Amino acid sequence: MTLLTEELREKLIKIGLDVEKGANEFDLQPPVKLFNPCGAGTWLLSFIYPDEPNLAFGLADLGQGFPETGDIYLPELEQFRGKFGLGIERDLHFTPSKSLRKYADEAHEKGSLIA
Asked: CA torsion sign, 28 to 58 to 69 to 102?
């Protein structure tokens, strides 16, 4: 599975342009959820930096009890292979219900990302 379709990539870059113009990245709803189907690891992507198309910003939970917001290097996720050779997948049914700030606050409070 391709992590990001061309349409999603363009949407994330457009949001990145909005952030460059002053939109608050924490007030945006992250349109993409990625996960490890065989273990820990969940990522919510808010935007892609327009001048660095391999770098996204979002919330990452690696299953160690300390979810954090920051930059996410997309090629690393695309190349990852876990148990049974499975890679990271995109949640095809994910629809954001809150801002990145709310997801992050809840994840920090509970020690894990629930999305």
From this structure: positive
Our CA dihedral for 92, 49, 15, 2, rounded to 10 degrees, sits at -20
Residues facing residue 44 across a β-bridge: 33, 59
The 3-class SS string of the chain reads CCCCCHHHHHHHHHHHHHHHCCCCCCCCCCCEEEECCCCCCEEEEEEEECCEEEEEEEEEECCCCCCEEEEEEHHHHHHCCCHHHCCCEECCCCCCCCCHHHHHHHHHHHCCCCC
65 within 8 A of 111, measured Cβ to Cβ: yes
Q: What are phi and psi of 106, to 5 degrees?
A: -65, -40
| Mean pLDDT score across all residues of the chain | 95
Q: For 5-18, write each residue's pLDDT tens digit.
A: 999 999 999 999 99
Overall size of the chain counted in residues: 115
Cβ burial, residue 87 (10 Å; 0-12/13-18/19+): middle
